[in-house]
Write a structure and sequence with these properties.
625 residues; alpha/beta; ABC transporter transmembrane region fold; 4-stranded antiparallel beta sheet; 12 strands
Length: 625
């Protein structure tokens, strides 16, 4: 992470971004969530129709029971009773068939929405600038692309249409009740004001609780991801107990948020059951009294029975809606976070009218460049340099002097605040980022290998090369250049040998050599080595150095190194101190000046005698025999 001034922990940054996400209104979140369903309107129409058919079948059942009692049992007509019994069975079959097909359709739509939303998010994450990843935690990003997306999908498919069906059942029940007996229906409706007040209380209290849940879940994910990635360091410094305590704090915050939501969720259902029982008691007391007193001619035992069944059906969808309210709140909170992420714009964007950078020779010029990561505290101040085609430029200086910043600016991972950077006379802000980086290669100090095969990782910088007739041969040549071919071809599977995630089954030297082969295969005109040899042993470094001498010929290269052997053959050495280029020249010229570089050299900073590793101890790892 690159910061100016005080650092920001993943948890605190997660909190900041969630606060920003709350600026989106519920109406806007709902509108954008519904827009995800637009391509599937036809399927959703049929699913809704099937849900309504299933709901109509359930609404017909109490009426059928009422008629079977009044016209069959009480009237003593067995034939009519059998007919109503058959009708009841028919409603069950209709309900089963309609429910089966609507679930199938909704499941299909749900998977498509999941696919679309996750694809959009992944595509957008690839477009965001490195500044976003400097300040954002991995766990927080993963949380938005997994649990948040699932929360939206659940409410958009099952939740939305089922809520419509529940509303249909409630309205249909009310209509049937009034058609059967207006007076008894009014008795049932007495509880509606209580339910309205209950709904207001639940909605107002549960929304902040569920927003807090989404936030604390992302905090847990962020802490978990950070600890998993850094497990080697945690165990090396015996931090297991301390990190457990820190994770326990975050985890307990999530539990507290869950308990707060459970307070509302657990309270609403028993209260609804109490209201349901109260309504049923009123029906028995009032309706039964009217039947016994013969003051309501339209009331019969069958009608009263149907009323009680309809009352249960009336409260059942309301109970379902209350149970589903936690899904609604979770989806709204997730939607806020997802759409906030999708609305973020890359800090570095192609200008309107940006053109493709033509094939370059590798002439690089920094003209009075000033840059600050935070826009306030400059990391690089009025830096000017020139690298002609084929030059090997070495960047030297203490940690934080601005070495890595120069190469990041050259690849336009960030935009400068002042000055200009040109490649073959083209301002890098005037050309497309894709065409600029296509002609550059980058090898990092900590190489990153993807899970797959050796050939997949070497071919990473040349998408499609494996489909070319001589693609595998080009990969073999790249491996030979860096001295890996013999080792690779001794492995079971050779170039199809499995590489575990992050190259976990390879040594540090092997990972670095594969990353070098990857850069060489991309055939860049400008090659950047960001301390690429600092984590390998002397023997492996010598192997890499020989490969570099062959590959760098005719290419412009920028090398950040801590070893004398890597920089002493550079055509120009740039010495940086506190963001300024204080000296430049060849190794011998700088020693003769007896300036800052000479001081670093004589003090042994970053160099060791006879190419020994200077900055701390680095474990020796090399190509296995």
């Amino acid at each position: 992470m690159i910061t100016g001034g005080g650092g920001i922990t993943p948890v605190s940054m997660s909190s900041m971004l969630d606060e920003e996400a709350r600026l989106t209104s519920d109406r806007e979140v709902v509108r954008r969530m519904l827009a995800l369903l637009q391509p599937y309107k036809a399927r959703l129409f049929w699913s809704l129709l099937l849900i309504l058919i299933a709901s109509a079948a359930t609404l017909a059942q109490p009426r059928i029971i009422q008629l079977s009692i009044d016209r069959g049992i009480l009237a003593g007509h067995l034939h009519e009773l059998n007919l109503w019994a058959a009708a009841y069975v028919a409603t069950l079959l209709v309900f089963w068939a309609a429910s089966y097909y609507q679930v199938w359709i909704l499941s299909w739509v749900g998977q498509r929405v999941l696919f679309t939303l996750r694809t959009r998010m992944f595509e957008h994450l690839q477009r965001l600038s490195l500044r976003f990843y400097d300040r954002e935690s991995i766990g927080h990003i993963i949380s938005r692309n997994t649990s948040d997306v699932s929360a939206i999908n659940e409410i958009l498919t099952q939740g939305l249409l089922q809520s419509i069906a529940d509303a249909f059942v409630v309205i249909g029940t009310i209509a049937i009740l009034f058609s059967m007996s207006v007076r008894l229906a009014l008795v049932t409706m007495v509880v509606l004001p209580i339910m309205y007040l209950l709904a207001r209380w639940f909605a107002n209290g549960s929304r902040p609780a569920y927003r807090r849940i989404r936030h604390t879940i992302s905090m847990v994910n962020a802490a978990l991801a950070e600890n998993i990635v850094g497990m080697k360091l945690i165990q090396a410094f015996r931090r297991e107990e301390r990190n457990f305590d820190e994770f326990d704090v975050v985890n307990r915050e999530n539990v507290k948020a869950q308990k707060r939501a459970i307070f509302y969720h657990a309270g609403i259902i028993p209260i609804l059951d109490l209201v349901d029982m109260t309504s049923t008691s009123l029906l028995l007391f009032v309706g039964g009294g009217w039947i016994l007193s013969h003051t309501a001619p339209e009331l019969t035992i069958g009608v009263l029975t149907a009323f009680m069944l309809y009352t249960a059906r009336f409260f059942e969808p309301i109970r379902d809606l209350a149970s589903r309210w936690d899904q609604v709140q979770a989806a709204l909170a997730a939607g806020e976070r997802i759409f906030h992420l999708l609305d973020l714009q890359p800090d570095v964007q192609d200008r309107p009218g940006a053109y493709e950078l033509p094939p370059i020779q590798g002439h690089v010029v920094f003209d009075d460049v000033t840059f600050a990561y935070d826009g306030i505290h400059p990391i690089l101040r009025h830096a000017s340099l020139e690298a002609r085609p084929g030059d090997r430029i070495a960047l030297v200086g203490r940690t934080g002097a601005g070495k890595s910043t120069i190469v990041r600016l050259l690849m336009r991972f960030y935009d400068i605040q002042e000055g200009k950077i040109t490649v073959d006379g083209h301002d890098i802000r005037d050309v497309t980022q894709k065409s600029l980086r296509r002609q550059m290669g980058l090898v990092l100090q900590e190489p990153f290998l993807f899970a797959g095969t050796i050939k997949d990782n070497i071919a990473f910088g040349r998408p499609g090369i494996l489909e070319e007739p001589d693609g595998l041969e080009q990969i073999r040549q790249a491996a030979e250049v860096v001295g890996l071919r013999e080792w690779i071809e001794s492995l079971p599977g050779q170039y199809d040998a499995v590489v575990e995630e992050r190259g976990g089954n390879l040594s540090g030297g092997q990972r670095q050599l594969i990353s070098l082969a990857r850069a060489f295969l991309a055939d860049p005109r400008i090659l950047i080595l960001d301390e690429a040899t600092s984590s390998v042993d002397t023997e492996t470094e010598a192997l890499i150095q020989r490969a570099l001498d062959r590959v760098l010929a005719g290419r412009t290269s920028f090398i950040i190194a801590h070893r004398l052997s890597t920089i002493k053959h550079a055509t120009k050495i740039l010495v940086l101190d506190h963001g300024e280029i204080v000296e430049q020249g060849t190794h011998q010229e700088l020693l003769e000046q007896e300036g800052y570089y000479y001081k670093l050299y004589t003090l042994g900073f970053s160099f060791g005698d006879e190419d020994e590793i200077a900055e701390g101890y680095v474990e020796e790892v090399g190509v296995p025999e």
